[in-house]
């Protein structure tokens, strides 16, 4: 098993990432934002270089699938949700979890109090905004568990439909869209929030993955990448203003709208999600209990047929075989 202990983050200049370093690439789940601050910080501060890696962070976001990038060899490493990785493994495209960055679900179903939706049962027959693909799975698990039939409305990556009354309930992430709703002028007391984790839908989100084949070829590189990424997150949490500065620069370079207040909120919430509240859990560690729970849920919903043993999934297999 990878020993992912948080060490003191180095501050070597990124310029040292040159000759003699192993080249590798990472594709995040989305465009630059504080959800991925640890990786941009680790690159900017030379932490990957300190660990012997010349890392390139690839463009994520619309039209760029991190899961597909792993499979076609475009990326060596990728950020994926656990549910996506389990489905990839079920299809025979075996992945390895190198570090579980976000250790719990941050997805919320949100409704205005004026709608009268104060309990899950009150969502019956209502219009619910859902993202496409794997991002809808936690909400679908919530509907299944609560025996709800809802009117599913495709939701874009904005909250405009909810703000304009086009849906009764919207899917939001605590670190992102929920804050966007507040920034639009809606007060927290005007909203009812259904944190999926509070209803037994505890899907760990962002994790760092690579192909099993890639891990076997160079387990030392995979371990170094995971370690450097965790150090990048620790540096970001220890130096939040600098981390937001770095993220904003990458956002502007990618021509993504950049708002300091929102990115600061996002980084603060990422700290809440990444640093375990449970003393028995280490930063970067995938809980075997969460792994089993998500596996069972996906199997019950018919999204996977087979499962990978937990010890194999997190990479503690004999890489010499």
From TrEMBL:
The keyword Iron applies. Coiled coil: none annotated. InterPro entries: NMT1/THI5 (IPR027939), SsuA/THI5 (IPR015168). Transmembrane segments: none annotated. Residues 34-243 form the SsuA/THI5-like domain. It catalyses: N(6)-(pyridoxal phosphate)-L-lysyl-[4-amino-5-hydroxymethyl-2-methylpyrimidine phosphate synthase] + L-histidyl-[4-amino-5-hydroxymethyl-2-methylpyrimidine phosphate synthase] + 2 Fe(3+) + 4 H2O = L-lysyl-[4-amino-5-hydroxymethyl-2-methylpyrimidine phosphate synthase] + (2S)-2-amino-5-hydroxy-4-oxopentanoyl-[4-amino-5-hydroxymethyl-2-methylpyrimidine phosphate synthase] + 4-amino-2-methyl-5-(phosphooxymethyl)pyrimidine + 3-oxopropanoate + 2 Fe(2+) + 2 H(+). Pathway: Cofactor biosynthesis; thiamine diphosphate biosynthesis. Residues 1-17 form the signal peptide. GO terms for biological process: thiamine biosynthetic process. Keywords: Iron, Metal-binding, Pyridoxal phosphate, Signal, Thiamine biosynthesis, Transferase. GO terms for molecular function: metal ion binding; transferase activity. Responsible for the formation of the pyrimidine heterocycle in the thiamine biosynthesis pathway. Catalyzes the formation of hydroxymethylpyrimidine phosphate (HMP-P) from histidine and pyridoxal phosphate (PLP). The protein uses PLP and the active site histidine to form HMP-P, generating an inactive enzyme. The enzyme can only undergo a single turnover, which suggests it is a suicide enzyme. Homodimer. Belongs to the NMT1/THI5 family. PANTHER family: 4-AMINO-5-HYDROXYMETHYL-2-METHYLPYRIMIDINE PHOSPHATE SYNTHASE THI11-RELATED (PTHR31528:SF1). This is Thiamine pyrimidine synthase.
């Amino acid at each position: 098993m990878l020993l992912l202990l948080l060490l003191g983050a180095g501050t070597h200049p990124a310029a040292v990432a040159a000759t003699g370093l192993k080249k590798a690439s990472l594709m995040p789940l989305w465009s630059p934002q504080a959800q991925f601050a640890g990786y941009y910080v680790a690159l900017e501060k030379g932490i990957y270089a300190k660990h012997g890696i010349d890392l390139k962070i690839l463009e994520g976001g619309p039209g760029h699938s991190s899961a597909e990038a792993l499979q076609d060899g475009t990326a060596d490493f990728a950020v994926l949700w656990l549910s996506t990785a389990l489905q990839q493994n079920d299809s025979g495209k075996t992945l390895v979890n190198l570090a579980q960055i976000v250790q719990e679900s941050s997805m919320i179903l949100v409704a205005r109090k004026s709608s009268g939706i104060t309990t899950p049962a009150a969502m019956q027959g209502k219009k619910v905004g859902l993202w496409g693909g794997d991002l809808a799975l936690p909400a679908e698990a919530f509907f299944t568990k609560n025996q709800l039939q809802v009117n599913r409305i495709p939701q874009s990556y904005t909250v405009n439909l909810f703000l304009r009354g086009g849906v009764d309930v919207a899917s939001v992430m605590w670190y992102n869209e929920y804050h966007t709703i507040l920034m639009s002028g809606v007060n927290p007391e005007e909203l009812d929030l259904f944190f999926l984790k509070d209803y037994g839908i505890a899907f760990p989100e962002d994790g760092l993955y690579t192909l099993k084949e890639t891990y076997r070829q160079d387990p030392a590189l995979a371990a170094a990448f995971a370690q450097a990424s965790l150090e990048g997150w620790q540096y970001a949490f220890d130096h939040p203003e600098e981390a937001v500065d770095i993220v904003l620069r990458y956002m502007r370079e990618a021509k993504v709208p950049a708002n300091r207040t929102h990115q600061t909120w996002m980084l603060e919430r990422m700290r809440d999600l990444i640093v375990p509240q449970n003393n028995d859990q280490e930063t970067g560690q995938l809980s075997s209990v969460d792994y089993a729970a998500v596996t069972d849920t996906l199997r019950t919903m018919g999204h996977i047929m087979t499962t990978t043993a937990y010890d194999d999934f997190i990479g503690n297999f004999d890489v010499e075989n």
